[in-house]
Amino acid sequence: MARFPRVQKPDRAGGLPEGPYEAQDSSAVRLASNVAMMQTIEFVDALRSTTSGHLGIDSRDLGIVLHLMRNHVSGRLTTMSSLAAASGLSYGTAFRVIGGLVDDGLLVRRTRTATGRSFSLHPTSELLRRWQLFAGHTRRLIDQVSGDGAGVLRKPVADIASVIPPPTVLETKLALPRGLRLLVHADPTFMAMNTLKRQFEMILGVPIQSKALSIDRLRAEIVQNGQRQASAYDIIACDLPWFGDMVRRGRLRSLDDLIVQSEMDTADFLPDAMASARRRGHQYGIPLLSTAELLVYRRDLLEEAGLAPPRTTADTLAVASALHAPERGRFGIAWNGGRGTALGHTFMVTMAAHGQPIVNLSRTADGFLPEDMSDADLRPMFDSEAAHAAADYLQSLLAVSPPGILSMTWYDRARAYTSGHAALAYAHTLLVNLFERDPNSPAYGRTGYLPQPTGLTGRPISPLGGYALAIPSNLAPERIAPAWDALRALTSAGAAKLFMTNGSLASPRFSVNRDPELRAISPIIDIVDTIARQGVLRAWPRPPVPGISALITIAGEEIHDMLSGQKSRADALARAQSRAEAVMRDRDKQ
User: Do 276 and 545 form a contact (C-beta atoms < 8 A)?
Assistant: First the structure.
């Protein structure tokens, strides 16, 4: 038998080690290796426990739930056979497990054909709720084992529990021949809805046909649709200030009976958003998106110049002037100066910042009643002190605004700020995603937010904007119930979260704005939620009263003539008052 030479221990005293391992303590390597191994063991064990504790299923059956959830969020149909094949189990075992999940209320069967012999499988709201808890705890476990785990803060269980799960499917497909027909506005929320079309088609069980129009074209189409014998749309998106006119003309159906039957939690919606879609105590719309008109500013530029964020219109002019640097391609402030609707909105909310709505609404303890109760409430206020002050303020802004300001609209002003061409801007929260989610924008991570700078009064205010979904009054009777079911699904908390994770940052629901996953997307979500709770976000600056659209147009035309030098302030406002009074006198004839 061959004998191997005995390895001699190195003589450490006599010289340097011959290799790196000769001097290294291998116990440290074994210890590090054991720690990593133990972390993996603990992670898998904790994950198995989480599967059982939060999903309420055996870890063996996780493949069924994974396949079902994957199809649910991607809008793909799941059949019994496809789910069994994806489970990794034998067909007999898979069918028994699926049947048990149905019996436990975690899966729902929805018929696909009139015979009822074919059906699809979907997660129930209970499974989606459990999945949200499971996903939250799984992400926490991953955080704990990634790297060395140092400094990782464990998310409280209460936060995980407040995360809103995805919307579930309707148990019965909508009875809507030719599918669901929508008329909507072309903005990020409705574009997100279009992006998610496949998933919502699965949720509702019918195809979705959607027409998206710009604001003026949308209003014209709603008016034209109201003149048809039968509505061409099941659901229409209505700008909040339009509800007074649309209801007065009989174009919208009251939703009161449908709300009562469905036990909808209307308290979860921003109160002023619900009030904007209400008329004489009757609800005509359910808010889909709510925005705030804020002043945005570059924190870095103000800090470099030693300037404080502006709280008043005088402060705003001063800061915009100090940061106005046309030679460097940067201008003081961007705002809506485009003729017509864009400038009309600007003037209306600027009047509100000076303490007066565009019509003579009744005063309340904290502002104004956002609805007319008498003809006196509809008197135009272009001859008020606030209107004169607002006109002067806009005139002063011209000197520190970008070129072409008198053709600028909502998207243009947001783009000017996003690109770094404006140091400040009036902006709807609907469009702040342009710079909040663009790392290449100079404003990315450097933006501050404030309510509207105040003028004659010291009370901060942020005009509430947004859209509510409504059912046309001339919709065929047999389509009303399924249209309401679709409307409820589209305005649900789960749907609102989907919109916000796909490009929108404008939710009308308190629960959605408190979702920890959403609050991590952008600071604007918490800001809007805070000002809504503080009573700063209000509907009266854009009141949903009859004739408001005409008043906005008049303001947008007359003030544009003033800003372009065609009329004096006195002439423009006098002409606006005269035109507005005539419109309000004849509003029932229009």
Answer: no
Helix (H, G, I), strand (E, B) or coil at 211: strand
- In 10 A of CB 254, how many CB atoms? 17
Say yes or no: do domains 37-144 and 180-290+465-537 share a fold: no
Of 432, 441, 424, 428, give the one whose Cα is nearest residue 301: 424
Q: Which one-letter DSSP state was computed for residue 268?
A: G
Q: What is the pLDDT of residues 187-200, one digit of tens each?
A: 888 888 888 898 99
Q: Cα 400 to the chain's mean position, in Å?
A: 31
End-to-end C-alpha distance for the chain, whole angstroms = 114
- Mean pLDDT computed over 393-408: 97
Which among 190, 257, 315, 169 is positioned nearest to 471, based on CA atoms?
A: 257
Neighbours of 467 (CB within 10 A): 30
We find that the CATH architecture of domain 291-460+540-586 is: 3-Layer(aba) Sandwich (3.40)
The residue-averaged pLDDT of 438-460 equals 91
d(CA 27, CA 361) in angstroms, rounded, equals 80
Interhelix angle 91-103/62-74, rounded to 10 degrees, is 70
Could you name the CATH architecture of 180-290+465-537? 3-Layer(aba) Sandwich (3.40)
Tell me: domain 37-144, CATH 1.10.10.10, correct?
yes
Is it the case that residue 370 has pLDDT exceeding 50? yes
Report residue 272 as tokens. Answer: 């002023």
> Shortest CA distance to 237 belongs to which of 176, 178, 191?
191
What is the C-alpha separation between 253 and 472, in angstroms, rounded?
6
In the chain, what are the domain boundaries?
Answer: 37-144, 180-290+465-537, 291-460+540-586
CA separation (Å) from 40 to 37, 130, 142, 153, 482? 5, 24, 10, 19, 50
pLDDT for residue 214 is more than 80: yes
For residues 413 and 336, the answer to whether their CB atoms sit within 8 Å is yes
Tokens 């027909």 appear where? 181
Distance of CA 282 to the CA centre of its chain: 25
Give how far Cα 339 sits from Cα of 90, 346, 351, 353, Å: 68, 11, 17, 21
For the chain, the helix, strand and coil percentages under 3-state DSSP, each to the nearest 5: 50, 15, 35
Residue 379 — very low, low, confident or very high, per pLDDT cuts 50/70/90? very high
User: Are 131 and 123 contacting, i.e. CB atoms less than 8 angstroms apart?
Assistant: yes
Residues near 209 by beta carbon (within 8 Å), at least 6 away in sequence:
178, 179, 180, 181, 182
3-state DSSP of 93-127 = HHHHHHHHHHHCCCEEEEECCCCCCCEEEEECHHH
Q: Which two tokens stand for residue 579?
A: 């035109």
